[in-house]
Specification:
The protein is an all-alpha fold. The protein has a domain of 128 residues. It contains ten helices and no strands. The chain is globular, with a radius of gyration of 20 Å. This is HicB family protein. Pfam families: HicB (PF05534). InterPro entries: Uncharacterised_HicB (IPR008651).
């Protein structure tokens, strides 16, 4: 994975340093309580971010991402909410970099590295559950035993779970040359019953 190196002043800060220097307990607790109360009511929680400045060139757009990330950081202690607003499909990053080529270029910048540091700071202090804000989805990844064992060791070295380690890795950009080309049809698990169960399901009556 191609992880850009952060520039100063953020390069001298760990995730916990960034959080402690940029966020007071009062700033984090109030928005979190508000988010949780609205989540219970079924509404989609959104941050009140300022509008994106139009007509920016690429360097300015990278700085704009950081400006809005700092606004988001001040409003929430929920990493899922921060991720959705900043890096989700309809988030700030993809609004500012709608073209894949431009987005890949942004992922190599110091500003993107700083965005990941802010994300890590939010994740480090978020003790809530993901499904408080939106449904959780699951994916099944086939990997060799040796790779699974290596991930277990790596997670232990970082003092975290395999699940959090995987999320951390998925947040990192990856260069196209490190993605193997697919030969033939892309494989993937289809939804619903698999294998013999699928054939049984096909033979069930449909008028019940």
């Amino acid at each position: 994975m191609n992880t850009p190196q952060p520039s100063t002043p953020f390069s001298m800060l760990s995730a916990s340093d960034y959080s402690s220097q940029n966020k007071s307990p009062e700033a984090s607790q109030a928005p979190v309580a508000e988010a949780e109360s609205r989540a219970e009511g079924g509404a989609v929680e959104r941050l009140q971010l300022p509008p994106i400045t139009p007509g920016l060139h690429p360097q300015q757009r990278a700085d704009e991402v950081l400006r809005l990330a700092q606004e988001a950081f001040a409003q929430t202690g929920k990493w899922v909410l921060f991720y959705r607003e900043m890096m989700g499909v309809d988030g700030v990053v993809r609004q500012l970099f709608p073209e894949a080529e431009d987005l890949r270029a942004f992922e190599t910048t110091p500003q993107f590295a700083q965005l990941l540091e802010i994300m890590t700071a939010v994740r480090a202090h978020d003790s809530g559950k993901v499904d408080e804000l939106e449904p959780q989805k699951m994916i099944t990844v086939r990997l060799p035993k040796s790779q699974h064992e290596a991930m277990k060791v790596e997670a232990k070295e970082h003092g975290t779970s395999i699940n959090k380690l995987c999320i951390s890795k998925l947040l990192l950009p990856i260069r196209a040359e490190f993605v193997p080309a697919e030969k033939g049809k892309v494989r993937g698990r289809k939804p619903g019953p698999q294998g013999p169960l699928n054939r049984v399901a096909e033979n069930l009556p449909t008028d019940v």
